[in-house]
């Protein structure tokens, strides 16, 4: 093929719409967030393993871990881990429902996506509120 034919063929090819053309749908956003929370859980599990190892090693190692975990940054990371864990679990339940062949109409898809988001935030806040209440803070 001559260069002009290649150029003409490239001009005639349909272009796939760019992300700027698509309006973000809640189900699309929740799919992306589900993948991100899955990756975040990997790193959060390393923190969980560090906590368990510090507890097994002894009081000094545990105190060192707790000094980091009890800092503002540590609490923000643990709060994010809590939310990611709950959100990923609820997203997994949503996918389980789909695997059972249910919930495929658009209204139900959107309802489950919004429900995942609202329930994950609500449950995370409830867990942290109850934890601080038990600590007396």
TrEMBL record:
Q: Which Gene3D superfamilies match?
A: Fumarate reductase/succinate dehydrogenase, transmembrane subunit
Listed Pfam families: Sdh_cyt (PF01127)
- What top-level branch of life does the organism fall under? Bacteria
Residues binding heme, per UniProt: 88
Query: Which molecular function terms from Gene Ontology are attached?
Result: electron transfer activity; metal ion binding
Q: Which UniProt keywords apply?
A: Heme, Iron, Membrane, Metal-binding, Transmembrane, Transmembrane helix
Q: Name one GO cellular component term.
A: membrane
Membrane topology (UniProt) = Multi-pass membrane protein
InterPro entries, A to Z? SQR/QFR_C/D, Succ_DH_cyt_bsu_CS, Succ_DH_cytb556, SuccDH_FuR_B_TM-su
Q: Which cofactor does it need?
A: heme
TM stretches of this protein: 32-52, 72-91, 111-132
- Its predominant location is membrane
Translocase is among the record's keywords: no
Localisation per UniProt entry: Membrane
Coiled-coil region(s) at which residues?
none
The annotation note on the cofactor reads:
The heme is bound between the two transmembrane subunits.
Which GO annotations describe the biological process of this protein? tricarboxylic acid cycle
Query: Has the keyword Metal-binding been applied to this entry?
Result: yes
PANTHER family found in the cross-reference section: SUCCINATE DEHYDROGENASE CYTOCHROME B560 SUBUNIT, SUCCINATE DEHYDROGENASE CYTOCHROME B560 SUBUNIT, MITOCHONDRIAL
Its family remark reads:
Belongs to the cytochrome b560 family.
Q: How does it assemble?
A: Part of an enzyme complex containing four subunits: a flavoprotein, an iron-sulfur protein, plus two membrane-anchoring proteins, SdhC and SdhD. The complex can form homotrimers.
Protein role? Membrane-anchoring subunit of succinate dehydrogenase (SDH).
Return the protein name.
Answer: Succinate dehydrogenase cytochrome b556 subunit
Q: Which organism is it from?
A: Pyruvatibacter mobilis
Q: What is the lineage of its organism?
A: Bacteria, Pseudomonadati, Pseudomonadota, Alphaproteobacteria, Hyphomicrobiales
């Amino acid at each position: 093929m001559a260069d002009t034919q290649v150029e003409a063929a490239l001009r005639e090819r349909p272009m796939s719409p760019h992300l700027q053309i698509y309006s973000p749908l809640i189900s699309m956003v929740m799919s992306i967030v589900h993948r991100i929370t899955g990756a975040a859980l990997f790193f959060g599990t390393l923190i969980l393993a560090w906590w368990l190892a510090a507890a097994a090693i002894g009081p000094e190692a545990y105190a060192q871990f707790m000094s980091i975990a009890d800092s503002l940054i540590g609490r923000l990371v643990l709060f994010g881990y809590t939310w990611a864990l709950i959100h990923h679990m609820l997203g997994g339940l949503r996918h389980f429902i789909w695997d059972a062949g249910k919930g495929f109409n658009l209204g139900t898809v959107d309802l489950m996506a919004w429900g995942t988001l609202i329930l994950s935030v609500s449950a995370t806040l409830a867990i942290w509120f109850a934890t601080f209440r038990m600590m007396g803070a």
